[in-house]
Specification:
The protein is built from 15 helices and 25 strands. The protein has about 525 residues and is an alpha/beta fold. It has a domain at about 415-515: GMP Synthetase, Chain A, domain 3, CATH 3.30.300. It has a nine-stranded mixed β-sheet with strand order 2-1-10-9-11-12-13-14-15, sandwiched between helices.
């Protein structure tokens, strides 16, 4: 299987940027291992691997793969929770010049079968937790990650396999729960440009990075790969919970963390949060969904260190950053375009809109996928071509830029509510609802209406057993325009979320639309 199969349109990523110096992954691993020796590289619940051990292990993993004929142009898959061995596997595959494909264990078995077949990986690594499912995915060889070192055996440690900038680094599957999965490919150029930027956020070899989202998510990988390249120590959690996260942060004197909004919310709701010493923290990062301003305010007051909020896509392209300490008046935004990012707003017909107008956000930057694997049609659908012929990634997100160049996100285009001919953005309503003291979590969805076609419904996780749904609705509507009114508030024990914390609104809407109730 070759890289050429992944290109669906003219290459999106610019090949060169003037003055650019790229960090190459494999050689950097060799350099870090030699320089840092016994300094911890990866820590999980069962073991600590030093940099010297890590360097030797990934070089021997690469040697074993090379003996099997696996290198540039081939793919290796995994289905596993976070661990030191999973991190080593990832690094070893890339060191060998091959492409790593971490399959999402949150996907259905049917989707996983399609993903394994789509990537063509014949070698699949897994754990006992996912062994039964993994055994049905059609791989030629299945290896238990707990026995990774036995599998490596006496394979020789090899030098990093030379790679070209457009050789594939990894591939992440998106939207694989239904229909045809989309494999988002990242080449070495894409990843190198990403981790070349991390120094500006203070993640260096004296850093300790907490990882508590799955390794198959780009949210995790953006931080994890950068941490390895910079020589930091990674603390890997197999599953997030508040007390374990806080305990490990204190124990290992964590300096950085990559978290998603729901994790910040749960940490702020943790009764014991203030018992832990988090004074070592320098920077917390947030991505995958907008971090609500009310949550930013709580975190900035109670948790040492800054928050850097990032907006972007696994596909690359659009890229903004919000420095929360520097811009306390912009906590309702996702920040400004990062250096080198060109971001615009377009209407439904693909026409560029003037600055400040609402529309679909599109973006272009140095880090952009070459395309979806084996899927040129989907690649074209995800691409907007500017009048001067440049390719931009379509986000599907609705938003606008304010007069200071900060991006205000509203909703996914498909989640916009059209009631009585008026466009209603759930994010506007959710922002108001979150300010109510009895609201712990909330999602606003469209439900059918005889009079209006659609109408907003607020699904609320109450913060108090004394919360009153009608009182919350009345309070909210008093602060909204006449065309934005919430029709009802329903209480839920929790809201369905993906493994990286995104609310599954499609799942919430389905019961209301199945029978087209009025």
């Amino acid at each position: 299987m070759t890289q050429s199969q992944t290109i669906g349109v003219d290459r999106l990523t610019p090949k060169t940027i003037e003055g650019e110096e790229l960090l190459s992954f494999g050689p950097r691993m060799v350099e870090n291992a030699a320089r840092m020796g016994e300094k911890p590289c990866v820590i999980d619940e069962t073991r600590t691997i030093s940099w010297a051990e890590f360097g030797d292990l990934i070089a021997r993993i690469a040697g074993r793969l090379q003996d099997m004929g696996i290198g540039p142009g081939t793919m290796v898959a995994s289905l596993a929770e976070n661990s030191a061995m999973n991190t080593a596997l990832y690094a070893g595959v890339v060191y060998a010049g091959a492409c790593m494909v971490p399959l999402p264990f949150s996907a259905t078995e049917d989707a996983l079968i399609k993903e394994r077949a789509d990537c063509g990986a014949t070698l699949l690594f897994t754990t006992q937790k996912y062994w039964d499912v993994a055994s049905r995915l059609g791989a030629d060889e299945l290896i238990d990650l707990a026995k990774l070192e036995d599998w490596v055996g006496d394979a020789p440690a090899i030098d990093p396999v030379p790679v070209k900038k457009d050789d594939l680094f990894d591939m992440i599957y998106s939207s694989g729960t239904t229909g045809t999965p989309k494999g988002i490919v990242h080449d070495h150029l894409f990843r190198a440009r990403q981790f070349s930027r991390t120094a500006s956020y203070g993640l260096e070899e004296d850093g300790v990075l907490m990882l508590s989202t799955p390794l198959y998510s780009n949210t995790t990988l953006v931080a994890a790969i950068a941490g390895l390249v910079r020589g930091a120590t990674l603390v890997s959690m197999a599953k997030f919970n508040t007390i374990d996260f806080l305990t490990l942060s204190e124990k290992h004197r964590a300096t950085h963390a990559m978290l998603v909004p729901v994790q910040y919310m749960r940490l702020m709701d943790e009764p014991r949060f203030d018992e832990f010493d988090l004074s070592s923290y320098q920077c917390k990062m947030s991505t995958s969904a907008p971090l609500p301003g009310v949550v930013i305010e709580k975190v900035m007051k109670r948790w040492p260190g800054n928050i850097m909020e990032f907006y972007g896509m696994t596909e690359g392209g659009p890229a903004t950053v919000l420095d929360c300490a520097a811009h306390p008046d912009k906590w309702d935004t996702v920040g400004q375009p990062q250096p080198g990012a060109d971001m615009r707003v377009i209407d439904e017909d693909g026409n560029e809109l003037p600055y400040g107008a609402y529309g679909e956000v599109v973006g272009r930057s140095g880090s952009m996928m070459p395309g979806y694997h084996n899927n040129p049609d989907k690649t074209r659908e995800a691409t907007w071509v500017s009048p001067d012929g440049e390719h931009f990634v379509r986000t599907g997100d609705m938003g606008r830029f304010d007069e200071d160049g900060f991006l205000h996100l509203l909703d996914r285009k498909k989640d916009m509510i059209i009631s009585g001919g008026f466009n209603i953005y759930a994010a506007d309503l959710e922002a108001v609802l979150r300010k109510h003291p009895d609201v712990s979590d909330v999602a606003v969805i469209a439900i059918p209406s005889r009079d209006w076609g659609e109408t907003p419904l607020a699904l609320v996780v109450p913060a108090s057993k004394d919360a009153d749904a009608e009182a919350i609705r009345t309070w909210t509507n008093d602060q909204l325009g006449k065309t934005q009114r919430v029709s009802a508030v329903e209480f839920r024990d929790d809201l369905p979320r993906s493994e990286i914390g995104k609310i599954l609104k499609r799942e919430l809407r389905e019961p209301y639309w199945d029978g087209q109730a009025t």
